[in-house]
């Protein structure tokens, strides 16, 4: 299916979705190989919209926003849930029956939606420094070097760096704590485990607030 036709069909199905959307080029880059039109229907069938809703925005505490997320990242997480490389009390069972095409299509649908948004919060200068420059003394790389300075994420050298700007504060905080404690360990080359291990809980809380407001 041509990309212009895909965009047209999505606009017909959910006209409000495209208000204040990213450019077509941004959307194309993050959709990946899946079919977002098919993914919309599959996300309804597979109950993916039960928590995120049709707009891909969190409907429950502890559930992430998926709107505008990098499709390659979403697909990896679904595969990791399916293989149980990433632990969760609900998601492995939901991902278990998904075929490869289902995963790509569902990921493409949520990636096609307008980017997640959150209310901006005043940035603590020290937290902003960590995001922009990291901390060489602790071997901490800048968050923005992987996730981009606006937190929109990217795909580079086969690695999907997720969108973190506009993600819910509570979800970001929980995931950073999970990386720090080892409850989550499925990042490529263990990069997030290493980064979170040197962050204090106060820094994690501050980063969650800052990132949520990007």
Mind explaining what this structure looks like?
51% of the residues lie in helices and 3% in strands. With 214 residues, the chain is mainly alpha-helical. The protein has a two-stranded antiparallel ribbon. Strand 1 and strand 2 form a beta hairpin. Helix 3 crosses helix 7 and helix 10 packs across helix 11. The N terminus is likely disordered.
TL;DR of this structure?
With 214 residues, this protein is mainly alpha-helical. The chain is built from twelve helices and two strands; from the N terminus they run αααααααααββααα.
Shape: globular
- pLDDT under 50 segments (min length 5)? 1-20
Class per helix and strand makeup: mainly alpha
Q: Counting H and I runs of at least 4 residues, what is the number of helices?
A: 12
Radius of gyration: 17 Å
Alpha carbon gap, first and last residue: 34 Å
Helicity level, as a percent range? Answer: 40-55%
Query: What is the H/E string?
Result: HHHHHHHHHEEHHH
Strand arrangement across the biggest beta sheet? 1-2
* Strand portion: under 5%
Main β-sheet description:
2 strands, antiparallel
Overall number of strands:
2
């Amino acid at each position: 299916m041509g990309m212009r036709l895909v965009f047209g069909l999505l606009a017909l199905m959910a006209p409000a979705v495209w208000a204040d959307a990213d450019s077509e080029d941004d959307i194309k880059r993050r959709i990946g190989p899946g079919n977002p039109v098919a993914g919309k229907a599959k996300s309804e069938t597979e109950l993916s919209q039960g928590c995120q809703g049709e707009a891909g925005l969190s409907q429950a505490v502890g559930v992430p926003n998926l709107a505008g997320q990098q499709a390659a990242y979403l697909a990896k997480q679904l595969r990791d849930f399916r293989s149980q490389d990433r632990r969760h009390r609900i998601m492995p069972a939901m991902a278990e029956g998904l075929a490869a095409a289902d995963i790509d299509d569902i990921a493409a649908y949520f990636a096609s939606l307008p980017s997640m948004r959150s209310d901006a919060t005043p940035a603590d200068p020290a937290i902003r420094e960590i995001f922009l420059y990291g901390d060489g003394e602790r071997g901490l790389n800048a968050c923005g070097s992987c996730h981009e300075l606006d937190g929109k994420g990217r795909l580079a050298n086969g690695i999907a760096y997720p969108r973190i700007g506009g993600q819910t504060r509570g979800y970001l905080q929980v995931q950073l704590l999970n990386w720090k404690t080892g409850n989550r360990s499925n990042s490529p080359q263990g990069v997030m485990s290493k980064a979170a291990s040197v962050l204090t809980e106060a820094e994690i809380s501050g980063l969650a607030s800052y990132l949520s407001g990007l």
